Structures are given as C-alpha cells and as structure tokens.
Amino acid sequence: VEVVEDGFAGGNVIPSDFQPTPEMFERVRSNIVKSGEVGRLVSADFTGAMVWANLLEEDPQSGAKLDYREVAAELEAIRTEFENDNQTIHIIGFAKIVGDISDGAKSVVWFFLVAFIITAILLYLYSRSIWLTVLPLACSSIAVIWQMGTLSLLGYSLDPMNILTPFLIFAIGVSHGVQKISAWTVEKEFGGRTPDAWAQDGVTDVASIPRRSAMHGSRETMKKLLAPGIIALLSDTVGFLTLLFINIRIIQELAITASIGVAVIIVTNLLLLPVLLSWVNLHNPHAYRERLLKKAHELSGFWLFLTNSTEPRRAIAAVSFGTVLFIVGFWIAQGMQIGDSEVGVPELRPEARYNQDAILISERFSLGVDLLTVIAETVPDACTENYEVMESIDRFAWNLRNVEGVQQVITLPMVAKVVNAGWNEGNIKWRILPRDNYVMRQALGGIETDTGLLNRDCSAMPIQVFTEDHRAETIARVVARVKELRDEMNIGALEYHMEHEVLEDMVTGEEEISPEKLSFRLATGNVGVMAATNEDVAAAEKPMLGLVFASIIILCLITYRSVRGTICIVLPLVLVSTLAEALMAVYGIGLKVNTLPVVALGIGIGVDYGIYMYNRLDDLLKHGHSLREAFYRTLRLTGRAVIFTGFTLAAGVGTWMFSELQFQVDMGFLLAFIFLANMVGAIILLPALVRLLIYPKHKAAKEARLAVELEAEAAAAKE
Hints:
Blueprint: E1 2-4, E2 7-9, H1 22-35, H2 68-82, H3 94-106, H4 108-127, H5 130-153, H6 165-189, H7 195-200, H8 214-241, H9 249-277, H10 285-298, H11 300-307, H12 312-333, H13 353-364, E3 370-378, H14 382-385, H15 387-401, E4 406-410, H16 412-422, H17 437-443, E5 460-467, H18 472-489, H19 500-508, E6 518-524, H20 525-560, H21 563-586, H22 596-622, H23 627-654, H24 662-693, H25 695-718
Antiparallel strand pairs: 1-2, 3-5, 3-6, 4-5
C-alpha cells in the first residue's frame, strides 16, 4: 500500500499478470520496497526470500502428536530437491533443531562401542586375564540394560541431552568392578597380601606364596569392600537425587535416570560380581601369579615415589599447592557464564549446517532467529481507548531498541504510527500515536490478531524483541533492561467507579478485575525460555552443590565417625569441582541445562576414589602400620585400581570430542578432566591431608598405647 495524490493505491507484491520480463522484475522489486517486507520476507540485499511455516503440535483430525524428526527429514528432502549451483536452501526452526540433534545422538551408540572396546583392552592389560576382563564388563553392561529396562517400565525415555547417562553408569560400574577384581586377586592368589607386599619382602618364588579358593576370595572381597562400595554408591545416588530440586524437567529426568542406574550397580557390581568370581579358576594360575609378582618388582620404584607424598614436607607442599589452585580456580570461575557463550544452537558444533544457516539468515535479514517477547498486559480495548497505555508501550520499545545486542523491536504502537502517517499523505511528521480514540481505531482497523501483535480484546500486546544472538551476556543485558523498565513504567492501580453492579460483580467473582492498568511480563520466545532457564540454573547451582557435598559429608560421618577423615575425602572433591568451573570459564563453556549436572555427576564418581582410598588407608593405620607403610600398601592395591580407572574412564569419554553434538564434546572434555583430577586428588592430596590431620592423632594414640603397655610390663616385673 502506498500513498498517492488521490488517496491510497495498493495490490499484490507479485501481480497476477506477472511475466518473467526485466520490466516486471523491476516492478516486483519496487513493490517489495513499498510493502515493507525488506528484511522480513526478503533479505536486505535482495538475494534471498524467506518461507515461513507454522507447525501444529497435534493433528486436529486424528490428535496424533507431531513427529519433529520426520518433519526435519522432509525438510532435508526439500533442500536436496531444490538446492543447486544457482540457489541454496537454508533451514532453521525448532523442528530442524530436533532433527539435527537426533541425527547426531545416533552416533552416541558408536562412541559407546568405542569406549567399551577401549575399556576392555585396558582392563585386560590391567588384569592379564580373560575372565577378569569379561566379568566386570558384563556386570556393568547388565547394569545399563537393567537401567534402560527400568526406565521403560516407568514410562521414561532417553532424551538426547541425557543420553550420556548410560555411559556414566557403565563407567561407575567398571570403577567398582576394578576394585573388586583387584581385591579378589589378592585374596585368592596371594593369600590376602598384595604382590607388592611380597615383592617388598624380597619374595621371588610364587611357590612359597599361599593360594586360596575362589569362594574364599569372594567372601573376603565382600567383607572388605561391601561397606565402602555401598557408601560410595549411596553418595552417588543421593548426589544425583539432589538434581530433583532443580525445577527444570530435563535435569529432573536425568536425576531419575542416573539414580536408577546407580541403584542397579549396587546389585550387579557389589553383589553379582563377587558371586560370579567365586566360580572363576584362572588358566595356568602359576604363570599368572609369576607375571603379577614380576610386575610388582618392576613398579616398586614408582609406588615408592608416590609414597613420598606422605612425608611432612611434601604433604605441606601438596596441601599448599592445592590451596593456591583452589584460590586461583575460584577467582577464574567467577567469569563462568550462565547460559550459552557462542552464537547458534549450542547443542550443535559451530560449523554445523544449521548454525551456518542461522548465521547467514541473521546477516541477510533484519529479523534474526532469536526472539524475546515481553507481554504488555493491560485492560480490554486499551489499544484504542487508552493513549497512556499505548504511549508507555512505545517508550518501552524505544528504550529496548537502544540496548546493545537488540536487532529489532516490533510493537503495535509502531505499526499504528506508520498507518497513521499513511492516512496523512505519508508525511513523516504524522508518524505519531493519535490521541483521539476514533483516529486510533482508524489506524488499527486492519490489524488482525494473527499478526501476533495483540489478542482479541487488546488486553495483551506482545513486544517482539529480536536479538543479535542468544549468548548469555546478550540475554542478561536485555533482560536486566526489561526489568528496569518494568519497574519504572508499570502503571499503577486503576481508578474504578465503584457502582453497585461493579461491586456486585466483584463480590460474586463473575468479573476478574486486573489490579494494574499496564504491566510488562517476561517473557516468551526462544530467548525468553533461555532467559528463564538461565535464571533457574543460576539459582540452582550453589544449592545443588551444597546438597551434593552435604549428602557426602553426612554419609562419611556416619560410616567413619571421623570429622577429620570426612574432611580428607571431601576437600579434594571441592578443589576439583572449583577447577572444573574455572575450566568452563576459560574455554567458554557456559553453565546451562546440559553442563549443570556434569559437575554433580563428576563429584559422584570422584567420591568413589576417595572413599576406597581412605577406607583401606584408615584400616591399615588402625592395625598399627606407619603412614608410609599403610599408604604404600593402599597404593599397590586400591591406588593401582584408582589410577587405572581414572585413565580408562577419561579415555572413554575422550572419544566424545569427535561427536557431531557440541554439548557432548563439552561434556566429554569436562568429564575427562574431572575423572583425571579426582584421581590425582585421591592419590596425592588425600594422603597429604591424612598426614596433616589424622596421622598425628594415630601416632599419639599409638605412643599412648605403648606407654601403657610398658607401664604394665614394668609393674608386672616389679611384682
């Protein structure tokens, strides 16, 4: 529609008599400019045209749910059909996102298979036995199968966002399985003493080392490791259940999925595995024992080097270095963003076709793909009866247009001003909001509800804010400004005429009266959802970590009845979780729905290392061993298994860095770091803390016992 000398002239952008001639193309180009669709349906440089389609969640006839993956496949078929050397097709939208993420998630099966093979190879190199390789893998795989079956019975499914959970359950199962086969080998093949202990005594002939039955080995393994195993898994379970307090459904489903898996591991790896081991008879046990004893002699220097961390000076150095790391990590972690740190769909890699399409469309069109919609809630018919409301909405939109990161703002008052100017010969001076109600009705006469700018009675007018991207800093800046403007520009209570009929309606509740004339409410649109999610994640982070650590502390206190022992287990976990957040800040991994549970899951696996290490170390100290001797023996059995598990799990999740999905790349990177860092914390920092916090107490108690025994002997001799 355009203003001409005798009024208005208008028509279709593409005339009904269109022919592919240069003159007609020029006419269409002119019509596009006049229609105001440049930057909306047509790109600013006239090299692209937009095709919009709205999808229905349910089929109106059959009621069938829309299959977004099928829609994405059909869209891809359209792209394949129409794309050629002269034109390209670029597709964005929720259905395409779901399809691309689902396609990427299918590759997880291959990554799981690769991780399984890597774990199997490393486990064989560790155990040097087919049976001791197969059984832990079988029990861990059974745990995953039972987990999936239980989820199916409960009506849950695996969302692409928590598809990593089965692998974590497999990893936790392998971790506990390695501890079981290590303890079983020692009890059965070496008479309850580690091969390293025999090597330290100078034994070279395995014929002098007693062997016991497989049943005896299983019984002793269950006696020694059942309690720490259950405590570790209960800590994992309680830690995962704390995620239920986060009011985000996908995280709550992940919490349920992980908790079920850990509960299953209690049966498969703590009970089933020792039972299966009770039937195992190793092929050529003499050669197997000789191989382990020879390896123990070869590695004695490495274990002695690690044992030196229990010396007072090295313990102080280790704790001091850990303290410095914590301070630096805590300072860097303050720069961690809440939300996405990159443009495009964060679940996909930056170079993914969807993200490249989104960037191109944002550059060519003035309306981007990221939309935040603020709802201006007011009284009915406010758009034509109340100038104050319309003027406030217009000022609100003007302020938002001047916020960095805002690309465009579209509102009903903006349209009304353009139409009003059109009714006045297109004069720019008339591009204002009419104060007269009749003129306002004229300006808004042709605006329909399907434009998305108003509802039927004009009591809700969306303010559509298109942002340049959905990075955390952009969203935070825009939302903060919206909240400031909301507090400044909400118009207060209406002055109602309390006539008899109105009072009667209020008493009977037949008419609901809004307490405010105008209020701005956040928010819809994909950016609005992200903003709300980011706020929930930010609010949930500290309470979640607090609940995870509180559950671990309570369980450790109940088990070991030692505040100092609990501190030795928990402090390395605190350090690693802080360093993980610092790593996220350095590498630009935002804290969001995908990454928030990773820290909790990593802590859940890391606590296993600490509990197993502390349990054996504490037991040896109580039997009168010196700290150096106790830690040496702990390293040769439990520590060896912890080191193996840390490297194996890190190698397994490291394969995720080749995934097509960016969030799996981020998770693999974070989990690999968390596995290795927790392993180092359990091997280096935990014994250093024991030296400084616990061993002096053990040493004093031991000296006191010796003094009492000497006094008793002296008294007896005197008598």
